[in-house]
Amino acid sequence: MTGAAARTRALALALAVLTLLPFASHSQFFVNLAMLTAISAALGQAWNIAGGFGGLTSFGHAAFFGLGAYADAILQTRYGLNPWLGLPAAAAFGGGAGWLIGTATFRAGLRGSYFALVTLAFAQAFGVLANSLDITGGGSGILVALHPGAGRFQFTDRRAGYALAVALLALATLAAWRLSVGRFGAHLLAVRENEDAARALGVPAVRVKSAALALSGALTALGGVLYVQSYLYIDPGIAFSAERSVEMLLVAMIGGAGTVLGPLLGALVVHAIADTTRSLITTPGVAPMLYGVVLLLIIGLLPGGVVRIAAVRGDG
């Protein structure tokens, strides 16, 4: 085993142990922070499947998060559907939207920054619709009734919610790992590196990219369900905000886009910086500015992401 491989395994083990720590805590505040970090890591991993492994840089992944959140909230408040059934429904909405958006844009030949702007436009359009339609509650959003109990997907102990967030993170990470070793992932990588050459070799580029975006959208939508069931509320500002899309992108890029463990590290770094700056600096506007500066420094000094440190040291 090479030094880099050994370090990667040690890093994976350390992350696994760190993941288990909140289960031993009785502090609901600490567990809530851990849950938010786990959801952020899962969303970053979902973005990583399309943006990292596929090179499909999206500025509007909040579209899938919002579709999943609203699908779950509407189905249970309007139609009385059990919220557990909201999980497959949300995944279907998110995956279907990813496939349709991908097929339409990729068939039109849109790539790179053009694709990124199209995803941003979709997220903004969905936000406008959510603000306008009666079924979404307009700008007031949807408040889910409190019915504590596992049968209604509502838990008084945050550790249960954290366990579900970890389960989603594990599912997204498993999908990313399969991409890194499987044939579909090899096709996706070939399209990312040189789409014209991949087409010449017989790789169905449009179908491969659309499938990657659909998988990414489905996983992101599941994150929206977890948010709704944790906080029992959703509105357009929460669901389709540009900040949410940017956070997913940053988590993957800071940790290491196109790697399996990158988004896990990225979520830890992003939330550690955000929480530290908010707690130490009370002057309005300064904490977000410092947060942005620190993130820019990390991206500038570590263009390959934090996860690359282990590889560099292992090769050295």
Please, how many helices? 14
CATH class category label: Mainly Alpha
Mean pLDDT over the full residue set: 88
Strand content: under 5%
Q: How would you classify the helix and strand content by structural class?
A: mainly alpha
Shape: globular
Strand count: 2
Query: How are helices and strands ordered from N to C?
Result: HHHHHEHHHHEHHHHH
Distance between the termini: 15 Å
CATH architecture: Orthogonal Bundle
> Which strand order do you get reading across the main beta sheet?
1-2
Low-confidence parts: none
Question: What secondary-structure arrangement, pairings included, does this model have?
Answer:
Elements (H helix, E strand, L loop, with lengths): L2 H18 L7 H24 L10 H17 L7 H22 L4 H21 L9 E2 L14 H24 L1 H11 L1 H6 L4 H27 L1 E2 L1 H4 L2 H14 L6 H19 L5 H16 L6 H8 L1
Antiparallel strand pairs: 1-2
Verbal overview:
With 316 residues, the chain is an all-alpha fold. It has one domain (3-315): ABC transporter involved in vitamin B12 uptake, BtuC (Orthogonal Bundle), CATH 1.10.3470. Helix content is 73%, strand content 1%. Strands 1-2 form a two-stranded antiparallel ribbon. Helix 3 runs parallel beside helix 5 (112-132). The two termini are 15 Å apart.
